[in-house]
Amino acid sequence: MTTPELPGTGEQVLLVGLGNPGPRYAGNRHNVGFMVLDELAARVGGRFKAHKGGAEVVEGRLAGRRVVLAKPRSFMNLSGGPVAGTAKFYKLEPAGVVVVHDELDLPFGSLKLKLGGGDNGHNGLRSITKSLGTKEYYRVRFGIGRPPGRMDPADFVLKDFSTVERKELPFEVDRCADAVEALISKGLVAAQNTFHAG
């Protein structure tokens, strides 16, 4: 197997954060992808604007690359349409797409980066895979941990982070944004080597 290269074949790459739209969901665990994209938008120095692809987008430069930051305007389980529509508008192949999302199977704050793979029960990823017609896009997985006791994972992801987690959250979101920058500037293996510790 060849070593995965940088996302995208050209200079431009699409960075997608997953979440649910609206203030009601803003602090939910499921919305950590949006939180990371907000941090990246601050680094780019842009503000999200509605785009006909079905997402809020910011265009700019990050880590020496031209980037399109996108937050789908649909609910999580319908993320695929806006992601595929935005990628098509910017003429980007799936290999030029990086999706930042919450991950139940990782402890809070852990990061894992990968290319391809299954959706692991994540409805946002399932929708994106279906709409892009392939699993071969990049994922940056932000650990949110497992629900306590017998709580339904579907309820857990729609709850806000705990008080203890909220104290750490800005640091972890910042670190995840660093991981995205490393991925698009140094490639997958280098980013994994830096951010998969622990």
Poorly predicted tracts of residues: none
How many H/I helical runs?
Answer: 6
- Count of distinct structural domains: 1
Percentage of residues in DSSP E strands:
15-25%
Looking at the overall shape, the CATH architecture is: 3-Layer(aba) Sandwich
Average pLDDT, rounded to a whole number, is 93
Distance between the termini: 25 Å
Function: Hydrolyzes ribosome-free peptidyl-tRNAs (with 1 or more amino acids incorporated), which drop off the ribosome during protein synthesis, or as a result of ribosome stalling.
InterPro entries: Pept_tRNA_hydro, Pept_tRNA_hydro_CS, Pept_tRNA_hydro_sf
GO biological process, one term: rescue of stalled ribosome
GO cellular component, one term: cytoplasm
Please give a handful of descriptors for the protein shown.
alpha/beta; Rossmann fold; cytoplasm; EC 3.1.1.29; globular; Pept_tRNA_hydro_sf; peptidyl-tRNA hydrolase activity
Q: How would you characterize the overall build of this protein?
A:
It is found in: Cytoplasm. The active site is at residue 30. TRNA binds at residues 25, 75, 77, 123. InterPro entries: Pept_tRNA_hydro, Pept_tRNA_hydro_CS, Pept_tRNA_hydro_sf. The chain is of the alpha/beta class and 198 residues long. It has a single domain (12-195), classed as Rossmann fold (3-Layer(aba) Sandwich), CATH 3.40.50.1470. The protein is built from six helices and seven strands, in the order βαβββαββαβααα. A seven-stranded mixed sheet has the order 2-3-4-1-5-7-6. Helix 5 (163-186) packs antiparallel against helix 6 (188-195). The chain is globular and about 45 Å long. 42% of the residues are buried.
